[in-house]
């Protein structure tokens, strides 16, 4: 299977969102990074492709309203 390239979607200067495909499950893996001073906090959650398309379709609105929406979703679905 060919490797799927990872994409980065900027949600703000300190809130980039990285998206990649889990080849084993077919789910999209979303990674959110929050820069706090000199430390980086990382959040990770999985999403079905249909839900991911919905999320990506509203990214401009999310950027306008604030990146905290994605952060809250990531905190709720945090995977260790």
Q: What is the strand and helix layout of this fold?
A:
Blueprint: E1 7-10, E2 16-21, E3 28-36, E4 39-47, H1 49-57, H2 59-65, H3 68-76
Antiparallel strand pairs: 1-2, 2-3, 3-4
Radius of gyration: 13 Å
Q: Mean pLDDT, nearest integer?
A: 64
Q: How much of the polypeptide forms β-strand, as a percent range?
A: 35-45%
- Percent in helix: 25-40%
Q: What is the fold named in CATH at topology level?
A: Transcriptional Co-activator pc4, Chain A
Can you name the CATH architecture?
Roll
Largest sheet strand order: 1-2-3-4
Quickly describe the structure.
This protein is α+β, with helices and mostly antiparallel strands. It contains 3 helices and 4 strands. It has helices spanning 49-57, 59-65, 68-76, and strands spanning 7-10, 16-21, 28-36, 39-47.
